[in-house]
Queue: 3 jobs
Job 1
Amino acid sequence: MNRISKTFDALATQGKKALIPYVTAGDPNKEATVPMMHALVEAGADVIELGVPFSDPMADGPTIQLACERSLAHGTSLRDVLGMVTEFRQTNTTTPIVLMGYLNPVEAMGYPTFVELASKAGVDGVLVVDMPPEEACDVDAMFEQAGLDFIYLLAPTSTEERIKTIGEVGRGYVYYVSLRGVTGSAAIDVEDVERNLDRIRQHVKAPLCVGFGIQNAEAAARVSDVCDGVIVGSALVSRIAEQADNPQQAMKDVSELAHSMRVAMDAHEALEA
Amino acid sequence: MSINSTEKTTADFNVDLPDASGHFGIFGGRFVSETLTAALDELQSTYEKLRNDPDFQAEFDKELAHYVGRPSPLYFAERLTEVCGGAKIFLKREDLNHTGAHKVNNTIGQALLAKYMGKKKVIAETGAGQHGVASATVAARFGLECKVFMGATDVERQKLNVYRMKLLGAEVESVTCGTKTLKDAMNEAMRHWVTNVEDTFYIIGTAAGPHPYPMLVRDFQSIIGRETQRQCDAQIGRQPDAVVACVGGGSNAIGMFHPYIKYPEVQMYGVEAGGLGLHGDDHAAPLSKGKPGVLHGNRTYLMEDENGQIMGTHSVSAGLDYPGVGPEHSWLKDVGRAQYVAATDDEAIDAFHKLTRLEGIMPALETSHAVAYAMKLAATMDKDQVIVVNLSGRGDKDIHTIAELDGVTA
Ligand SMILES: Cc1ncc(COP(=O)(O)O)c(C=O)c1O
């Protein structure tokens, strides 16, 4: 069993939900990322989504666009990001790492090389925003053999047929995009999410995690109620933006927000139980 | 060779592409976030129905005739031919279309699709502003709300077109992220579309993007090549030896090329923006110097660095300043059916002046790249041979750029 399923199984036994923070690797600089990952685990993260910066982040709002720009200003490459995972794994062998980003850096590296290096580095899952299952089918097996989970997105606009497809091919967890829009746009509508997740759950056996629009601890707690995990990106990244000149402070602020989410989610689950 | 009278085709190029999932060989496809999948499915199924619907086609043809002013003339550029001293150069006068470029063929088609799909709002990305103007124009024509995304750099260098769009009632949003040019305008339009898919139709301005866009833009623009075939038959009794078109995203070129693909005796030349020269990075020539990758929903030749980051491009013409290209061109390149070459900024500017002085036709700077290459090519060919240049647009919008280069304050 890989780290992702182990983590979700353990959480299920404890009656807890996964907290999945997203940060862009190399933001605000390359040296800041590994300490940031450890700090997030310390703050209560169960899985880390590590963003691979891309010059044209089409599905992201201004917050993550700017994070990519800050990171690319130092020339952060996919190889650098894999190096960060290797370094993280020297002291943490349990927290799953999911790389999140766009396809072209992977295409440029070449699939066989990427799969080999990612699995060697200790990556557990890969979420490529612009790689739908129809296009992934040629390379899917290569990822599976290397023990890398291909994580797919579902959206409010996903049809029943697509939900079925992704239920079949998705591994690790399924990322439900809570709103029509880019990352960091609006606040989440929990009732709407709940209705959609009911629909999705009929066809998807993998854990369902919800992201986009979760801005604070209270929202994280409410959303965690209806799903298996909560993904928080822009809210954390905007803390980094505010302290881009002071990575130490940025790390502190990010940890604090993540920790407040952890506390609120656990308290909420305890209340429900 | 006469296309109307011969059925001679080669099997290789007689395939009907793209395939059902939008691929031209390894190129094309649909590389988009899940959020856009449903919208693209809807567009695809609507288009597949309308593509063979005689009523829709009749409506499209009527708009092209009475609104756009088609057919556009095929003009023999006698003095230009004389100066080049080789093959006869004919110009397919897309510059005479309403709004002054080939772009309107596509925007009329997509606006009709929007109408059939019941969408009341349209959005568009634009580089030179020609596609923005063509979109704002058809939005006015069909009573649709229109928003145009344009890179801040382009807003600055194409002021006249920005004002034109505003006069037509469109809202112009200046895009300040990334390199502030066409690719960033396209990113921002996609982001807006994701957020507003319910009531908004995205009119993509070139034969790129996720399936079905490269196919439908090509279909709408193919009127250029089909008319050229008929006009060549009628005016010179034969088809040309070569067709030449500039390539930004590739819509005017594919419009000219597509109907000729299955006639391999007609050479096809796509002319990319060579900028300051292909030896450095200051150009916009992905087919000449790039490699395959994925951007804006399709796999195609791209200008990217060794880490797969998309590079900034340079061209004197905003409309060619794009790091990617439509996937059908990538396929035509790889199978060897079309040749892709480049003309530099200086060559294009020189061609602009030559055509203006010799024929009284002022081409757009984009178009001037095609003219520049055609002049070189003509000189290497025999006097009884024929080249057709797709004169994709007129140069009024570029007069201030030319004036600045000449040190004139217009
Ligand atoms: C006159 C003209 N020609 C050509 C182009 C390039 O686009 P495409 O390659 O899609 O024809 C443009 C784009 O703005 C244009 O305005």
Note: The pocket of pyridoxal-5'-phosphate is lined by residues B 101, 127-128, 130-131, 206, 246-253, 319-320, 364, 366-367, 392-393 (CB under 6 Å).
Job 2
Amino acid sequence: MKIRIRFRKYSLMKYIGHLDILRYFQKSMRRAGIDISYSGGFSPHQIMSFAAPLGVGLTSDGEYLDIQVESTDSSKESIKKLNDVMVEGMEITSYRKLSDNEKNAMSVVACADYHVFTKSEEKLKLADLLEAKKSYYDESDEILVTKQTKKSEKVMDLKSLVYGFDIFESEGKIYYYVKLSTGSTDNVKPELFLTAFFKHMGLEFDETDYQIHRLDVYCRIEDKFVSLSETGEEIE
Amino acid sequence: MKKLALGDDILLTVDKPARYIGNEINMVVKDKEHVAIRFVMCFPDVYEIGMSHLGIQILYDMMNKREDVYCERVYSPWTDLHKIMKERNIPLFALESQDPIKDFDFLGITLQYEMCYTNILQVLDLSGIPMLAKDRKDHDTIVIGGGPCATNPEPIADFFDMFYIGEGEISYDALFELTKEWKEKGYSRDEFLMKAANIPGIYVPKFYHPSYDENGIISEFTHDEGVPATVKRQVYSNLSEAPYPSKPLVPFIKATQDRVVLEIQRGCIRGCRFCQAGMIYRPNREKDVEVLKKNAYEMLMSSGHEEITLSSLSSSDYSHLEELVNFLIDNFKDKGVNISLPSLRIDAFSLDVMSKVQDIKKSSVTFAPEAGSQRMRNVINKGLTEEVILKGAGLAFEGGWNKVKLYFMLGLPTETKEDMEAIAVLANEIAKEYYAIVPKEKRQGKCQITISTSFFVPKPFTPFQWEKMYTPSHYLDCAKTVNDAVNAQLNKKSIKYNWHHADVTVLEGVFARGDRRLSQVLLNAYNSGCLFDSWTETFDMQKWVKAFEDANLTMEEYTLRERSEDEILPWDFIDCGVTKAFLLRERKNAYAETVTPNCRQQCSGCGSASYKGGVCFENKN
Ligand code: SF4
């Protein structure tokens, strides 16, 4: 049986990288007594895969992993069992059964959205930013950025890969909302997009000064983006 | 969110920030306002090494079981963070509360190997605690050392207020009660230290005074009035009742030991003459197998680890090994838990178990004959014969293994060229065995025999504590002798030879049997930038050479000199159970190439029966 788990990663856990999160969950499954399936062989491993790895330093309200289980309790009980063994900064928010022919999370991911805000005092003005956004995004046909890979540089047009961009103010802090293409092809990281936006304004986007917070991850169903939390069904 | 001592600007730029944030599974959280004593336990090496250490987990659990004590942890910041902390003057902090180390009542430092000594100075320096104990004032943190190297604490005596000699399970309660009394009654630091020096196992170096003659040999070792002349190493006699952590800490990043460690016994019945652990952990004490089953179950459940390993000096000597191993396999194997079994003698039983728990094609069988010739093995009292090794290897080859690892030491007392060459000959014999046993059509290529040698370092409280060591060039000659001998073997293509560098061996030898004069060398070394000396990428011999010169000492006076049997050794004030008379007897036996029977065959009256437990009293009512 396939299960999709949604979790939050915040606070101190943002310093823990993706591979260590994987190890963390392997041990958590055991501690919580989840009846997870194992592969065969001499060093059996749990059948588990993640939707879209989150970089070190980022927090998230919508992370996903799929597991395969031999048997399971209800969604409610399983969430409780898992949350009882979590550390500060990790919280399980959903546990749903997928149909057997459902593709795994990693292969269906289409986009993810984020809030980005400064960790220090706000220095920028909302009006200026909205003005810049107009010329950079709203009224422009293309957004060219150079993407640096290990071997080469490549110029990319982000326009068709950015599905949403908004800037707003809340309690004296400016928030950038971005919804970006995510997955094995056409993966756009929020820092890439914002670096280009800041450059457009003649500013520098200092990554360590900004908190990037992922809101959710989506798949595409019949031309609409649907949150992965809506896939599968509750187990009563 | 818990406030961290370091900000994102630092944590997101250093390697592995998880080393510095705490928050691990099973971390103990207490309200620091509601405890009487704050203790921080330090392993002076990088987090991944320190977190793998069983002793700290035991003490962490034991101390935190007391409501009035909060025990936290600290490890050596890696060189990247070290630099930042020095530049920006950031004080070293404990992982749990993230509070500065300076705020703690005790800083406990575990001393596992000599090459971590500069890291001790790093921890003191970054914490802002005066490095020399004599410069500390009433309110300063008490620095206490413990662990195997505390059996000769003299080279680092100047940096510590006290040492705890022996197994921590015993005297910490007494120390904590005294600490509370100290706080209530407002004793001065010296009054407190004087009272502490009277707790069994506590050594306060400032009350003991060595003097040296013109050759640097101890001429006198006196002590102040009111402290005992000898400090008795503390040993927990009924290990089954000793506290054991049912909820081990589980780090986020992969530690060296990423598994449940189940200590099945302490000590060893064998008495190899080079082995300090085999002497100082006497008597051999087994844990009740039912207790172990319970411990294993609890620890696997509470940690979620996917592997469990048995810890002991010689697992095959544990009386209920078969029962325990079968229990682990039956209960955990199909739950995806790996079972790892180090230090097993290779025989039909262990091969059968190994074939159940590992992939034969990928794994290897390991032998530690420690010396190549039977003569040399008799000298070191390693009761492993060529016949037994060839038989074990033969069984392994029949079972499908084709990789063999062999461990040896070079630079042993009385060693000759023939003894060294015998290492290669033994490896060749094993290869011959493979080609004789396994028919051509069944071979998966060649057999692979890997020889590793390390250089012998004489340690305190062993029969070899008086022996001389050699120069680095002599050690390299030894390695060359073995290498040439390997190349002269018929099956040389099946044999691979690895050897260690000699510089670290020499330094280790200096500090293992050193005296208090070495404190200055350590200070010089640290101040000139020596740190993480057990790491090849950071070790710098040139700086060490200079550190000795500047202290007007030489490495050679510590390494190349054979101690005379009536000389006062720096660690003579410690009573480790084994008596000097026994060690001297064993030394004579070594030179006579006479094997001493193990504790189960026949008691040799080593002195450890004074601890009233373990093997000395087995089968006796
Ligand atoms: S007293 Fe005898 S039995 Fe006990 S540890 Fe010593 S040699 Fe072994």
Note: Chain B touches chain A at residues 1-2, 4, 8-9, 11-13, 17-18, 21-25, 27, 250, 252-254, 300-306, 335-336, 338, 358-359, 362 (CB under 8 Å).
Job 3
Amino acid sequence: MIEKTDVVIIGAGPVGLFAIFELGLLNISCHVIDNLNKPGGQCAELYPEKPIYDIPSRVSISGQELTDELLAQAKPFKPVYHLSQQVEKIEKLDSNEWLIMTSLNKSIQAKCIVIAAGAGSFVPRKLPIKNIDHLEEKNILYAVRNKSILEGKKILIVGGGDSALDWTNELSKISNVTLMHRRKEFKASPDSVSRMLDLEKNKKLNFLLGQIQGIEDLKNDKIKVIIQNNDEMEDFEVDYLLPFFGLKMELGPIANWGLNLDENLIKVDTEKFETSIPSIFAIGDINIYPGKLKLILSGFHEAALMAQECFKYCFPDKKNIFRYTTSSKELQKKLSST
Amino acid sequence: MKILVTDRDGNKQILEADTSSTLMEIIRDEGIDIEAACGGCCACATCHVYIDDKWLNRIDPIDDDEESMLDQAFDVKKNSRLSCQIHLNEELDGLELELAPE
Ligand SMILES: Cc1cc2nc3c(=O)[nH]c(=O)nc-3n(C[C@H](O)[C@H](O)[C@H](O)COP(=O)(O)OP(=O)(O)OC[C@H]3O[C@@H](n4cnc5c(N)ncnc54)[C@H](O)[C@@H]3O)c2cc1C
Ligand code: FES
């Protein structure tokens, strides 16, 4: 089934979230798609607890607080969020509208696309070891999609953060799990850490100190992980290796959409923030123009100007009357409707 | 003041440094290939370097934030540091370091 909306926003970072509001003021409805399982982009993923000091009128606000406030501000406009999926393809339809397709096979039809993709999608950071690409999704899993294949298997989980510990605790119920980290301290919720330590004490899982040095394909559905701890080396044979070294940002499929790029950034004009393809806009960290500053407040400005131009695509026969939020009765009714 | 950087190809370079910058900024602004994806906020671990042993005790000790971020780096050693967390001072004139592999 194809869902329909006025605008699809790619990326639920701070700039994508504010774009919902700016478009909403002009009666333009949106769907928002993000690869992460939560909105907030870099602010929520990389620095939820760190303070930001240059959001106008906020002396200090944390990455998560900013995300929460932006979500609340956008809420009256009833945006539809599609999380945990990447936009993979876009296609121009005969009607001149766009079809936007995601990795979860969702298709959305829209009049305009707003790319607010930051530095790209957040994807797992991969091991910097050569010649292991063919083992990916086979013996090396950077994300667990189907837990049942791991049942009864010998698994090495590597990392010291929440993902590593959550999966260690979860999988030790059904598999033979070893957790490896470079030190016996963890940057994860205290609850998961104590659960993990309990499991270790009760011999439900093994803990190893060390780092991955190399990986060999044993060609019998197993791999050999070469582990280094200080000056000692050890071989460890497993069915599955699950490395959790955080996330990094990668431009991803956007590179293939025929947009005019400058390195990994999308070129736009500074009047409408439109890309080289009409009715596709780019705002926030993903765009580039003379004088660009990668700041949240610049992204907010870009969102406001982009919305003015989107209006023309969405309502070609209507006149856009400029109104302040302070004085518009119609707006106030809309904003207080939730 | 000067610092001596060994890049990933083993080339040594002498860089002019000043005390208003972090080590990462000096390396990055010289055009040496260091990703420093988060711009120095201790949020990415892509500015990982090895500090020459004789200098290790002279720089500010590592804090919890940096130590946890190093958990996302590969090939971490006893002399591993995140270069964005090292503020330069005159006493570090001559500092030697090596970029960690990507
Ligand atoms: C540690 C740190 C501190 C910072 N401090 C400040 C500060 O003090 N002040 C300031 O102004 N800025 C600061 N910044 C920069 C600020 O966070 C960014 O400018 C801002 O997050 C950019 O917002 P954005 O919405 O453009 O993109 P992002 O926040 O990067 O969000 C983009 C989103 O798009 C998603 N995405 C990309 N491609 C796809 C796709 N194909 N399909 C689905 N989803 C996709 C990504 O998963 C991501 O969630 C800081 C950054 C960092 C890392
Ligand atoms: S630049 Fe990101 S942690 Fe140093």
Note: The mean pLDDT of chain B is 94.
